[in-house]
Amino acid sequence: MKICVVAYKFGTAAEIGSHLGTYQYLANKLKYLSAQGHEVQVVAPWISFTKSGSRTVSGVKVTRTYPPLLPKIYLWPFNRLVRRFYIRATQQAVKGVVNKIKPDVVYVWQARESGFAIAKIKKSLGCPFIFRQITTWHWHWQRRPKEIFENNKVYKIFKSIGLGFLIDPVLVYLLDHRTQKKYASYIYKKADQVVFLSEAALAEANQAGLPDITGRTKVLPIAVDHELFKPSIPRPKDLKTSGSKTVLYVGRLNFPEKGIGYLLEAVSLAKSKVPSIKLVIVGAGSPAQHKELEQRINQLNLKNHVLMVGKKPLTSLPAYQAAVDLAAIPSVWMEAFGAITIQAMSCGTPVVTSDAGASPEINIDGQTGLVVKAADSQALARALIKLLSDSKLSKKMGEAARARVLAMYTYKAVANKFLDLVREIK
Predict the structure, then answer these.
(1) What are the C-alpha distances in Å from 75 to residues 8, 377, 386?
(2) Residue 355 in contact with residue 332, Cβ under 8 Å?
(3) CA of residue 38 relative to chain centroid, distance
(4) 172 Cβ partners below 8 Å, 6+ apart?
(5) Least packed by Cβ within 10 Å: which of 154, 222, 367, 409?
(6) Distance (Å, rounded) from C-alpha 91 to C-alpha 33?
(7) Cα(290)–Cα(142) distance, rounded to whole angstroms?
């Protein structure tokens, strides 16, 4: 099969960031397809305005376009001018690949600008056009300025002096939600298939006020490298938790979205029943987020119950996920999928997740872990206590979690589902 992939970011781990698992997942998936004998070519922009990026990644040929996107609202109106050139360059490059290899499918990876570019030239492709949606539309145009900029120093100043009513309309304009929705609407009109990470993400899209895509949707999860994320990995040297009952949190230090505040409260509540509980935090955030984290730890008297090890590259995560007693994913916002969840499960570690978004589709409550109500620190505390106090139950759920990953979330399983989809719509 011949596959043309259009991505708004693509490169080696060193080029795009060793911690960005979603992009590495795409590279690994395409590497797998190429190794199976399929011809895969990627169209992607330069890594930055001064670095072109690799022309071959994991054996996959990459056609580079210029310029890359510039999603910085403070660079208005230059960012919108760049977007126009990005769309045109993407169209020209894809036409070149289509004429050269005559692909069986053009597969667009997420960006609305990329999807819009291909939707506009769909008639000239000569093959189906699939749009792969990664995040939810709420993330792109429904969030208000407060959700996005609440930790921004300038925004805080405006709010503190009572001028929020002036800056909010300006930010709404600069965020350009109207154009983003226009792109999404056109993509939904033209795409032969729109692929979602989960049923929850699909349901969110159906409520977004976009063109009807009934009969043109599929749910296709992301995969995890089950040979990298596996049980029985040597313990990291900086994981100094001997004698503790360990709970792992991996992710951004974003309190409103990721629910880390509720997790801290849950640990505070659980320590009376599990005195040796220790929360291991792998991740980073802005200076304001770090400050907020430290304040909450002090307020809850958790200094001896929290270990922060900082941000780690993707390849280092398995050692942490395999070494702990359980992993907690207390998200508050609508998780389109949850890569951290399947990574921990692949390591044979039971998980405690919130019921936000797709988490209950991945983590089967009572089998691979426990699912609790989002933004409920007491329910979360009860789940932590239950698993940390019952090693037999924890072991059973961890084994079931690993088995579920091997059955549903390996690269072989996910890649075969993708190929089946292409065959269906050809």
Answers:
(1) 19, 40, 50
(2) no
(3) 26
(4) 144, 145
(5) 154
(6) 24
(7) 26
**How do beta strands 60-65 and 56-57 pair?**
antiparallel
As a whole number of Å, the end-to-end CA separation of the chain is: 11
Q: Summarize pLDDT for 287-328 with one digit per residue, the tens.
A: 889 999 999 999 999 999 999 999 998 889 999 999 999 999
Token couple for 378: 């007491």
Which residues in the chain land under pLDDT 50? none
- Report how far Cα 5 is from the mean position of its chain's Cα atoms: 19
Report pLDDT digits (tens) over 165-188.
888 899 888 888 889 899 999 999
Q: Letter for the amino acid at 173?
A: Y
Q: Supply the DSSP string of 277-294, one letter for each residue.
A: EEEEEE----HHHHHHHH
Give me the pLDDT at residue 20, please: 58
pLDDT of residue 221: 94
d(CA 197, CA 277): 33
Structure tokens at 384: 């932590």
